[in-house]
């Protein structure tokens, strides 16, 4: 087998790996969704549960879709960087470079060049958020409309923010809560905790509200269609004509625009919180002190 | 089949999602950023090398041009010198020739004058000799005849007159 053929086969395999998880998710969804009458706004379907301490772990649609998203993004990354060359000869390499350059530029612009190691993390946040939200376009239950998923990201971001704040030393961090006067401490603590909560609730609420409104409008259009066009003879009267096309307009906003917007906002907030939370002066002072100590110890 | 409540909190799901994001971060770092950055850095270094080469070439070309110009100027100067030398030589030669000619002419003139002088002298000598011969012959003729004072004086006058005519 020639090398060219082999590369082509790998490309095709990666493309399949990119698309197949979502197809499987759709098949699973079609097979398992119970037929329901009327409108039902509920959480994700539970496939099975694993007993764990504290509370059982539910394996739901959301978990499966998340897994599909991760596999798909991994395959996409591999596909984009497969056969990468110094002198680019494929469009996908340009796409990969465009993504990397844009994210790097975003980091440099918003956080400074000290944080360049954050570029993959921000790209991961954007990718997972955008893909999760956009999976709603395939009829899947978008993982971002499950609070647990977005809360997990929010908590991770909060851990990173706190880690960076603690780089200035524990004392300045604790002292920061009692400023400008000690009475403010509870508010400061609430403000600190509200960071991940607001971040995750904003994201999750936006996507979920889109789902809710889409469902409501869809059912309303169905009722309207029955009322206006119910007189049509035979089975024609049963087809909800008004449901064709009109919900797609809403979907453009709630699924496409809102989903991508929230991904961008989440990434932006992550960058800003990390960059502004980092006490640069304290950190420099501490580093200088450490250096001095090390020097004196060496002498 | 059951479904979750629309708002439900599950620690394990949160943890799984957190781990998912971490995994995706590692995936992005390993499979997207690392190769792309590596390629970009490589390209950067290549471009830098190419630019350095180009700069070197340009420098070399400029040096060559400089050298060529210097050489051209030197050659032109040399040519100018040659022409000037030739002109000078020719001038000198022509001067020499003219001078020589002048000298020769002067010499010839002098020689001619000397000859003329000599001839004149010769002629004068000849004339004098003739005069003396004449005088002698006249004297001898006079001796043959009787001479009176009047005759004598007439004769001398005539003679001198003749001599003046002759001259």
Topology:
The complex is a heterodimer of chains A (299) and B (167).
Chain A: H1 3-32, E1 46-50, E2 57-60, H2 61-81, H3 91-110, H4 119-134, H5 147-166, H6 170-176, H7 185-229, H8 246-277, H9 280-298
Antiparallel strand pairs in A: 1-2
Helix pairs in contact in A: 1-2, 2-3, 2-4, 3-4, 4-8, 5-7, 5-8, 7-8
Chain B: H1 11-144, H2 149-166
Explain what the structure shows:
The complex is a heterodimer of chains A (299) and B (167). Chain A folds into 2 domains: 1-26 and 62-78; 108-289. A two-stranded antiparallel sheet of chain A has the order 1-2. Chain A has helices spanning 3-32, 61-81, 91-110, 119-134, 147-166, 170-176, 185-229, 246-277, 280-298, and strands at 46-50, 57-60. Helices cover 70% and strands 3% of the residues of chain A. Chain A is mainly alpha-helical. Chain B is built from 2 helices and no strands. Chain B has helices at residues 11-144, 149-166. The longest helix of chain B has 134 residues, at 11-144. The termini of chain B are far apart. At the A-B interface, strand 2, helix 2, helix 3, helix 4 and helix 5 of A face helix 1 of B.
Helix content of chain B: over 70%
Could you estimate the helical fraction of the residues of chain A in percent? over 70%
**Gross morphology of chain A:** globular
Distance between the termini of chain B: 175 Å
Distance between the termini of chain A: 65 Å
Provide the succession of SSEs of chain A.
Answer: HEEHHHHHHHH
Beta-strand content estimate of chain B: under 5%
The total count of strands of chain B amounts to 0
State the low-pLDDT regions of chain A, or none.
none
Number of domains in the coordinates of chain A?
2
């Amino acid at each position: 087998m020639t090398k060219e053929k082999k590369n082509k086969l790998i490309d095709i395999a990666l493309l399949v790996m990119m698309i197949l998880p979502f197809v499987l998710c759709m098949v699973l969804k079609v097979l398992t969704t119970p037929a329901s009458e009327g409108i039902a706004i509920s959480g994700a379907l539970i496939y099975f549960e694993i007993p764990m301490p504290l509370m059982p772990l539910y394996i739901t649609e959301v978990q499966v879709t998340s897994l599909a998203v991760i596999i798909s993004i991994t395959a996409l990354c591999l596909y984009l960087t497969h056969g990468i060359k110094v002198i680019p000869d494929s469009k996908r390499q340009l796409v990969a470079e465009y993504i990397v350059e844009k994210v790097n530029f975003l980091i440099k612009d918003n956080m400074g060049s000290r944080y360049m190691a954050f570029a993959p993390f921000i790209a991961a946040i954007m990718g997972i958020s955008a893909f999760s939200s956009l999976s709603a376009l395939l009829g899947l239950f978008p993982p971002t409309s499950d609070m647990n998923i977005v809360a997990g990201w929010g908590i991770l971001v909060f851990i990173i923010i706190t880690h960076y704040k603690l780089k200035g030393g524990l004392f300045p961090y604790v002292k920061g809560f009692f400023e400008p006067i000690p009475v403010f401490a509870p508010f400061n603590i609430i403000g600190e905790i509200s960071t991940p909560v607001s971040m995750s609730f904003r994201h999750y609420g936006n996507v979920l509200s889109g789902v809710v409104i889409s469902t409501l409008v869809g059912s309303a259009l169905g009722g309207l269609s029955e009322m206006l066009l119910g007189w049509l003879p035979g089975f024609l009267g049963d087809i909800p004509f008004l449901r064709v096309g009109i919900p797609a307009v809403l979907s453009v906003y709630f699924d496409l625009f809102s989903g991508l917007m929230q991904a961008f906002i989440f990434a932006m907030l992550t960058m800003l919180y990390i960059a502004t939370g980092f006490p640069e002066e304290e950190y420099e002072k501490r580093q200088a002190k450490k250096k001095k100590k090390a020097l004196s110890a060496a002498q | 089949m059951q479904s979750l409540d629309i708002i439900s909190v599950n620690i394990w799901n949160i943890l799984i999602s957190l781990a998912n994001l971490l995994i995706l971060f590692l995936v992005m770092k390993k499979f997207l950023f690392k190769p792309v950055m590596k390629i970009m850095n490589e390209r950067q270094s290549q471009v830098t090398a190419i630019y350095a080469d180009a700069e070197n070439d340009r420098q070399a070309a400029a040096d060559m041009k400089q050298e060529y110009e210097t050489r051209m100027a030197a050659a032109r100067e040399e040519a100018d010198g040659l022409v000037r030398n030739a002109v000078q030589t020719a001038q000198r030669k022509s001067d020499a020739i003219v001078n020589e000619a002048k000298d020769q002419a002067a010499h010839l003139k002098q020689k001619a004058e000397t000859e003329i002088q000599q001839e004149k002298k010769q002629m004068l000598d000849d004339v004098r000799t003739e005069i003396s011969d004449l005088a002698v012959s006249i004297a001898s003729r006079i001796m043959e005849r009787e001479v009176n004072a009047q005759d004598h004086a007439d004769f001398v006058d005539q003679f001198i007159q003749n001599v003046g005519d002759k001259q």
